[in-house]
Amino acid sequence: MPFTAALKDCYFFTIEFGLCKQEGQLRAYGAGLLSSIGELKHALSDKASVKMFDPRTTCHQECLITTFQDVYFVSESFEEAKEKMREFAKTIQRPFSVYYNPYTQSVDLLKDTRSIENVVQDLRSDLTTVCDALGKMNKYLGI
């Protein structure tokens, strides 16, 4: 299966139809569930199958677009689902990495030494700012 198809299916079963646990109860976070009371009732009923979210198996589940889903995937928390997706994405065989740039709110490709140097320079600048702030706080507090 092409990795883009796997990501598409994982997106579908998380961002659109994802479930997670909160205080031991099933909760919906997927937009498709939250926007359809019928689908939400179905997902939380005995008619639907609920499996633990694992991107390696979730990506092989058929996405139904004209009927309610046969299967929904649940995580212990939204954070757990995010972490599992990050780990899954690391398995992509590709000649580059990606980096979320919080300043531009975009994903940058790290495909050559220049792009990596730019990220390192930004990190150095951020660390300098944090160290400066800590120094000022310590001086102010007399530490």
Automatic annotation (TrEMBL):
Any one biological process term the GO annotation gives: aromatic amino acid metabolic process
UniProt GO MF annotations: iron ion binding; tryptophan 5-monooxygenase activity
Cofactor(s) listed in the protein's UniProt record: Fe(2+)
UniProt keyword list: Iron, Metal-binding, Monooxygenase, Oxidoreductase
UniProt-listed Gene3D superfamilies: Aromatic amino acid hydroxylase
InterPro entries: ArAA_hydroxylase (IPR001273), ArAA_hydroxylase_sf (IPR036951), Aro-AA_hydroxylase_C_sf (IPR036329), Aromatic-AA_hydroxylase_C (IPR019774)
Any one GO cellular component localisation term in the record: neuron projection
Domain Biopterin-dependent aromatic amino acid hydroxylase family profile stretches: 1-138
Name of the protein in question: Biopterin-dependent aromatic amino acid hydroxylase family profile domain-containing protein
Organism (species): Albula glossodonta (roundjaw bonefish)
